[in-house]
Design a protein that fits this description.
The structure is a single chain. The protein has helices spanning 2-39, 52-64; strands at residues 75-80, 83-86, 88-89, 112-113, 119-123, 134-149, 155-159, 164-178, 181-188, 199-205, 208-214, 224-230, 233-238. It is of the alpha+beta class and 242 residues long. The protein has 2 domains: 1-38; 70-238, no CATH class. A hairpin with a 2-residue loop joins strand 1 and strand 2 (83-86).
Length: 242
């Protein structure tokens, strides 16, 4: 009887222990899984290597990139000494070259270039695939003196300030595409040694003038005008000296 009692107790203890561990087994398994994950070192993402095709494309883009700065916004720009300067549009339309002078311009230019060796960049959507071969740079001469007549016909001359006129005199510049930028055009003289004389000019794009000033003492007579105000209108003549 005593032996049977102890055997029954052992059997009961075994069944109870088996039931307990069966209930705790998922918890133990989850704990072991988290511990193993924590002990496993994380592997950093390895960047994908650049293939030969991508390397060739990057090298080609760098080779085709222009050796000067290009604008990021649409507009007309002067490129001088490695610096871009945006040109402002004149409110007056550029007249046909059969007309000697335009209507008076009373506002000074807001763009001054250090010398006349500058180039120009035209960044316009409407010129892509429809660019002209050449573009004019028109002279914008300053009116320095005006002559008037009194009632007796006696002339008098007075100095004039802040008065300019677009003349029918111009310089012709060549238009070239800029590689990799189909909406951009490079405008420059065909003669690499050409220098615009000091004075004011207008780059003409589709009859619209974009003006700038070349710094320096004005010595070119085309940059100087005298005006005669008469009863039947105003007449202009080139200065005999600047």
């Amino acid at each position: 009887m005593l032996a049977r009692f102890f055997a029954g107790m052992l059997l009961f203890a075994g069944l109870a222990g088996l039931a307990y561990y069966k209930e705790k087994l998922p918890v133990i398994a989850e704990h072991l899984h988290l511990t193993a994950a924590a002990d496993t070192p994380m592997i950093a993402a390895v960047p994908q290597a650049i293939g030969p095709a991508e390397v060739k494309n990057v090298v080609q883009q760098q080779a085709n990139a222009p050796a000067f700065p290009v604008p990021s916004d649409y507009g007309i720009y002067a490129l001088s000494s490695g610096t871009l300067s945006e040109l402002n549009a004149l409110s007056e339309r550029v007249p046909d070259k059969r007309i000697a002078v335009s209507t008076p311009i009373t506002r000074p230019s807001r763009t001054t270039l250090p010398d006349g060796r500058g180039k120009f960049i035209i960044f316009r959507r409407d010129l892509a695939g429809n660019a002209p071969d050449r573009i004019e740079v028109r002279v914008v001469a300053r009116v320095v003196r005006a002559s008037t007549f009194d009632a007796k016909g006696k002339p008098s001359s007075v100095a004039v300030s802040d008065a300019w006129n677009i003349r029918n005199l111009s310089y012709e510049f060549r238009v070239r595409p800029i590689a990799g930028n189909p909406e951009m055009l490079l405008v420059q003289s065909e003669n690499p040694d050409f220098v615009l004389p000091a004075g004011r000019y207008a780059l003409v794009v589709k009859e619209q003038g974009y003006d700038f000033v070349v710094a320096g003492a004005v010595t070119d007579l085309s940059q100087c005008l005298e005006r005669t105000d008469a009863v039947n209108g105003s007449f202009y003549s080139e200065c005999k000296k600047p």
